[in-house]
Specification:
The structure holds two protein chains of two kinds. By secondary structure, chain A is an alpha/beta fold. Chain A is built from 14 helices and twelve strands. In chain A, helix 6 links the parallel strand 5 and strand 6. Chain A is globular. Chain A starts with a strand and ends in an 8-residue tail after the last helix. By secondary structure, chain B is of the alpha+beta class. Chain B has a single domain, classed as Alpha-Beta Complex (Sufe protein. Chain: A), CATH 3.90.1010.10. Helices cover about 45% and strands about 20% of the residues of chain B. A three-stranded antiparallel β-sheet of chain B has the order 1-2-3. In chain B, strand 1 and strand 2 form a beta hairpin. The longest helix of chain B is centred in the C-terminal third of the chain and has 26 residues. Classes of the chains: A alpha/beta, B alpha+beta. Bound molecules: pyridoxal-5'-phosphate. Pyridoxal-5'-phosphate binds next to helix 3 of chain A. Chain B: This is Fe-S cluster assembly scaffold protein NifU.
C-alpha cells in the first residue's frame, strides 16, 4: 500500500510535462538569446510557454516573469513594491499572520530596513476579512500581500474583495497563489491583482521553476542582476526545460480542473467526516472556504511526528505542523495564528489529496489514522490526564 | 537516508515496557505538552533493584524510542547503576539521534532521575 497524501508539499510529475521537457532538452537546446535559428527556436518555445501560462490567469504574456519558484516570486514582488513605496515615503505593508515563510521572512527583513508591517488576524476559521484590510490601510501603506490559499489549512481568502479595496485606495496588491494556481480559477483582471506568485511543482510540473505575474506598469526590480533576460527583471539563461514542463503541466491541470475540483471536494469531505469520528479532534480552518484537496486536523493527546511516522509505516505520506517536524520548538505558526494552543497544535495532521487519490485511499486513510491515534493515545500521559479529568479537554 | 537509525525505528515501532505500574513506588514525569514532549516513568524498586519499569510518552518518534531504550537499560539493574545512566548512553544505545533530537534522550535521563527522587522522597516520608 502506498498512498501519497501530501500534494500541498509537492506533486508527482505529469507525464505530459516529462514528455514536453524531454523533447525540449533534445530539440531546443539553443540559448533563447542567440540570434541564429536554433536560438530563435528556443525563444519561440519560451514565448509560447509564457503565452500559455498568461492565458490561464487572464494576464498578458508580457506580464509573466519566469523565476526559480514561488519563493523567488514572493521575494521579488514584495521587495519591488516596498522599495518603490519607500521612494515615495511610504513604508507600511499589510499582510497576514499565516503567510508562507517566503513572505514572512521577506517582511522581517524589510522591517530591519525601516518598514512597518501590520499582520492581520486570520480568525479562528483561517479567513481574513476584507474590511479589516481596509481598516488597516494608512496613507503610507505601499503594499498589501495576502496569500490566495493557505498551504497548511487550505483556507481560501477573499482575494477579489481585497483586490477591490486595494484598487479603490490605489495600493499595490500581491498574492502568493502558490497553492491556488492549478486547483482554482484565477482572473488577475477581475480580481484586481497586481502581483501573483506561482510554483510549478505544486501543479505536477518540475521543481525549481515558477513565475511571477506583475501587472504592466507596476514597479519591478530584479533580485538577480546580469543579462537582459526577462526584460532585465531576472537575469540568467532561462530554465527552458523547466518552463516548458511547467506550461505543459499547467495546461493539463486546467483542462481537468472543474471535474477534478468536484471529485476532490467529495473525497475531502468524506475524509473530514471520517476523521471527525475520532473523539477530541477538530478540523483546522473553514470547512467550505478551503482547497478541494485539503484536510487538516488536530488530535488532542498525541504528537504529530510520531503520528506521521506510523502512517508512513502504513504506506501513507502526510505532513504535520508539530514542532518536531518543523525542526523548531514551536508548532506551526499557521495553527497558532488560528488560535490553536501549543498542546493541541503539536497533534496536527495535514492530508492533501490530489490527482492519484481514490475513494479507496480515503477509506484506508480514515481507518489507519483512527488506529494510529488510538494506539498513541494508549500510552500518552497527556491523554491519561485528559481522560481522568486531571486536565480539561480543549477539543 | 532515513531520518532515524534502525535502532530508533525498532524502539519506536516496537516500544519495550510501555504502560503503567499500578503499585509503582517511584514515578517521574518530565517535559510539558507546550513543548511537545512529556515522559512518565513508573518504577517498582525492591532491595535497591529496579524490578520493573514502564513508561508513557507523549512526543515524537525519538522521544518514544528514547523512553523505550532507557527502560531497557535500567530494568533489573541496581540503583547505584541506574543513577549513573546518562542521556549520552541512551543516545549511543540507539546508534545516535539527529542533533535536534538529542533533547529527547535528555528527557529520558531526567525522567529516571525524577523517579529516583520520588523514591527517595517517599522513603524519607516513610521514615518520619
Ligand atoms: C504558499 C506557498 N508559498 C510559497 C511556497 C514556496 O514555493 P517554492 O517551493 O516553489 O519556492 C510554497 C511551497 O512550499 C507555498 O506553499
Amino acid at each position: 500500500m502506498s498512498i501519497y497524501a501530501d500534494h500541498a508539499a509537492t506533486t508527482a510529475m505529469s507525464e505530459a510535462a516529462i514528455e514536453a521537457m524531454t523533447r525540449c532538452m533534445r530539440e531546443y537546446y539553443g540559448n533563447p538569446s542567440s540570434l541564429y535559428r536554433i536560438g530563435q527556436q528556443a525563444k519561440e518555445v519560451l514565448e509560447q510557454a509564457r503565452e500559455d501560462i498568461a492565458s490561464v490567469i487572464h494576464a498578458e504574456s508580457r506580464e509573466i516573469y519566469f523565476t526559480s519558484g514561488g519563493s523567488e516570486a514572493d521575494n521579488q514582488a514584495i521587495r519591488s513594491a516596498a522599495l518603490a513605496g519607500k521612494k515615495k515615503g511610504k513604508n507600511h505593508i499589510i499582510s497576514t499572520a499565516f503567510e508562507h515563510h517566503a513572505v514572512l521572512h521577506t517582511l522581517e527583513q524589510l522591517k530591519t530596513e525601516g518598514f512597518e508591517v501590520t499582520l492581520l488576524d486570520v480568525h479562528e476559521n483561517g479567513v481574513i476579512r476584507p474590511e479589516e484590510v481596509e481598516a488597516a490601510l494608512r496613507p503610507e501603506t505601499c503594499l498589501v500581500t495576502v496569500m490566495y490559499a493557505n498551504n497548511e489549512i487550505g483556507t481560501i481568502q477573499p482575494i477579489r474583495e481585497i483586490g477591490a479595496v486595494c484598487r479603490a485606495h490605489q495600493v499595490l496588491f500581491h498574492t502568493d497563489a502558490v497553492q491556488a494556481v492549478g486547483p482554482l480559477s484565477i482572473d488577475v483582471q477581475a480580481e484586481n491583482i497586481d502581483y501573483l506568485s506561482a510554483s510549478s511543482h505544486k501543479f505536477h510540473g518540475p521543481k525549481g521553476v515558477g513565475f511571477l505575474y506583475a501587472r504592466k506598469g507596476v514597479p519591478l526590480l530584479p533580485l538577480i542582476n546580469g543579462g537582459a533576460q526577462e526584460k532585465g527583471k531576472r537575469a540568467g539563461t532561462e530554465n527552458l526545460p523547466g518552463i516548458v514542463g511547467m506550461a505543459a503541466a499547467l495546461k493539463e491541470t486546467v483542462a481537468e480542473r472543474d471535474a477534478e475540483a468536484v471529485r476532490l471536494t467529495g473525497l475531502r469531505d468524506r475524509l473530514i467526516a471520517g476523521l471527525k469520528e475520532i473523539p477530541h479532534s477538530a478540523l483546522n480552518g473553514d470547512a467550505e472556504k478551503r482547497l478541494p484537496g485539503n484536510v487538516s486536523f488536530c488530535f488532542e493527546g498525541i504528537e504529530g511526528e510520531s503520528l506521521l511516522l506510523l502512517l508512513d509505516e502504513k504506506g501513507i505520506s502526510a505532513s504535520s505542523g508539530s514542532a518536531c517536524t518543523s525542526g523548531s520548538l514551536d508548532p506551526s505558526h499557521v495553527l497558532l495564528a488560528i488560535g490553536r494552543v501549543h498542546d493541541v497544535a503539536h497533534g496536527s495532521l495535514r492530508l492533501t489529496l490530489g490527482r492519484e487519490n481514490t475513494p479507496e485511499d480515503v477509506e484506508y486513510i480514515i481507518s489507519a489514522v483512527k488506529d494510529v491515534v488510538s494506539y498513541l493515545r494508549g500510552f500518552s500521559p497527556v491523554w491519561r490526564d485528559l481522560q481522568s479529568g486531571k486536565t480539561p479537554f480543549i477539543l | 537516508m532515513a531520518l532515524y537509525s534502525e535502532k530508533v525505528m525498532d524502539h519506536f515501532l516496537h516500544p519495550r515496557n510501555v504502560g503503567v505500574i499500578e503499585d509503582a513506588n517511584a514515578i517521574g514525569e518530565v517535559g510539558n505538552a507546550k513543548c511537545g514532549d512529556i515522559m512518565k516513568m513508573y518504577l517498582k524498586i525492591k532491595d535497591d533493584i529496579v524490578e520493573d519499569v514502564k513508561f508513557e510518552t507523549f512526543g515524537c518518534g525519538s522521544a518514544i524510542a528514547s523512553s523505550s531504550m532507557a527502560t531497557e537499560m535500567i530494568k533489573g539493574k541496581p540503583l547505584s547503576e541506574v543513577r549513573t545512566l546518562t542521556n549520552k548512553a541512551v543516545t549511543e544505545a540507539l546508534d545516535g539521534l539527529p542533533a535536534h533530537k538529542i533533547h529527547c534522550s535528555v528527557l529520558a535521563e531526567e525522567a529516571i532521575k525524577s523517579a529516583l527522587e520520588d523514591y527517595e522522597n517517599r522513603k524519607n516520608a516513610g521514615n518520619q
